[in-house]
C-alpha cells in the first residue's frame, strides 16, 4: 500500500527575503517529503520594520488586511492564508488589529492524488505597513519550486 505514495522533496525554496513597504517576506517550507494526496504545511514569514505594524484579516477602523493570492499547479489546493492572533493597537486615533516584528502566516498546500513531483507555486502578498506618521503599501510575489526527489 505504501508504494502508492510518490515521495518528493523540495529544492530552491523561494527567493531570499523580498522587501516592500517596510517589511520583508519569505516563504518557508519544512524539509520533508511530500506525498500525493496529503498536505504540506508552509509558512509565509513577514519581518516588519521596527516601529511599524501590519494589519490582521480584520484590520479594525482603518488599515488594510494582509492578504495572499495563491497560484498553484493544476490539482493542488490551499488552506488560504491563516493569520495569527493579532494585537490591538491605536494609531492616529483609530483602533486597529495587527502585528509588529516577525509575523508567521500558515499556508497549507494539498497535493493532488496524481502528483508527479514537479511544480511552481506563487503567493502574491499585499499588506499595509503603518506607524504613527505614515502608511506604506507593500506587495511582492513569492515563488516555490518543487522538483522530484532523487
Q: What features would you highlight for this structure?
A:
mainly beta; 5-stranded antiparallel beta sheet
Description:
The protein is mostly beta strands and 150 residues long. Helix content is 0%, strand content 56%. It is built from no helices and 13 strands. The protein has strands at 7-10, 18-20, 23-28, 34-35, 39-48, 54-60, 67-71, 77-78, 87-91, 94-99, 102-110, 119-130, 135-147. It has a five-stranded antiparallel beta sheet with strand order 4-1-13-12-7, with no helix packed on it. It has a five-stranded antiparallel beta sheet with strand order 2-3-5-11-8, with no helix packed on it. Strands 6-10-9 form a three-stranded antiparallel beta sheet, with no helix packed on it. The chain is elongated.
SSE layout:
Layout: E1 7-10, E2 18-20, E3 23-28, E4 34-35, E5 39-48, E6 54-60, E7 67-71, E8 77-78, E9 87-91, E10 94-99, E11 102-110, E12 119-130, E13 135-147
Antiparallel strand pairs: 1-4, 1-13, 2-3, 3-5, 5-11, 6-10, 7-12, 8-11, 9-10, 12-13
What multimeric state do the chains show? Answer: single chain
In DSSP terms (H or I, runs of 4 or more residues), the helix count works out at: 0
Series of secondary-structure elements, N-terminal to C-terminal = EEEEEEEEEEEEE
- Number of separate strands: 13
**Residue ranges: pLDDT <50 for 5 or more in a row?**
1-14
* Head-to-tail CA distance between termini: 21 Å
**Residue share in helices?**
under 10%
What would you report as the Rg, rounded to the nearest angstrom? Answer: 17 Å
- Determine the mean pLDDT: 84
Major sheet: arrangement of strands: 4-1-13-12-7
- Which structural category fits the helices and strands? mainly beta
Indicate the proportion of strand residues: over 45%
What is the molecular shape? elongated
- How does the major sheet shape up? 5 strands, antiparallel
